[in-house]
Amino acid sequence: MTLTLPLADLLCAAEPTISLGASLAVSDADARGKQETLMKHSGTLMSWTEYPPSIDEYRRHGAME
Predict the structure, then answer these.
(1) Partners of 41 in the beta sheet?
(2) Residue 60 host element (H or E)
(3) Cα distance between residue 45 and residue 28, in whole Å
(4) CA distances from residue 5 to 11, 22, 24, 28, 46 in whole angstroms, order as listed
(5) Residue 62 scores a pLDDT above 70
């Protein structure tokens, strides 16, 4: 499975340093009422004003907590 998200629409905030969290869960249940597999992934996409980000900007994002 491939998931494509429009990055421009997701990061269109006035604040340039924004974090976007996402979770994806997939359940494989071929037989009714019998779940065979459950997979989940969570992640964060961070948008920086420059790369590599300054230590100050990195801390503002909460990445060094």
Answers:
(1) 24
(2) helix 55-60
(3) 27
(4) 11, 11, 13, 23, 15
(5) no
